[in-house]
Write a structure and sequence with these properties.
mainly beta, three-stranded antiparallel beta sheet, 2 helices, globular
């Protein structure tokens, strides 16, 4: 599993949507809805715009191509801000390091 691929197993689904979708000539700017039934994975995140628990929207193909969907039974979410920029970290699986050390200023 890596950031450019897709992965499915009994613990998680990770979709890098550029691997699953086509750009249709002269329709790249149209909105796109993605519907997935992921009810077996109660924790779901996506870089797309959420419309409901299982429907997301992209403003066009470029947004879709840059998007990911992660669904799992167990996700850890950390967030922090630097100035006015918010950052979100999503981790699936066991965490084997100290969160305070991870966020320690350099």
């Amino acid at each position: 599993m890596d950031a450019g691929s897709c992965w499915v197993d009994d613990e998680q689904i990770y979709l890098n949507l550029v691997n699953c979708c086509f750009d249709v000539l002269d329709r790249s700017e149209e909105e796109i809805e993605v519907t997935l039934n992921l009810t077996q994975f109660p924790k779901q995140i996506s870089t797309l715009i959420p419309l409901s628990d299982n429907i997301w929207k992209a403003k066009g193909f470029q947004m879709l191509a840059d998007a990911t969907i992660l669904a799992s039974k167990n996700l850890t979410h950390w967030n922090y801000s630097i100035g006015e920029t918010a950052f979100h970290i999503w981790i699936h699986g066991e965490i084997n390091f100290d969160q305070k050390l991870f966020f320690r200023p350099v």
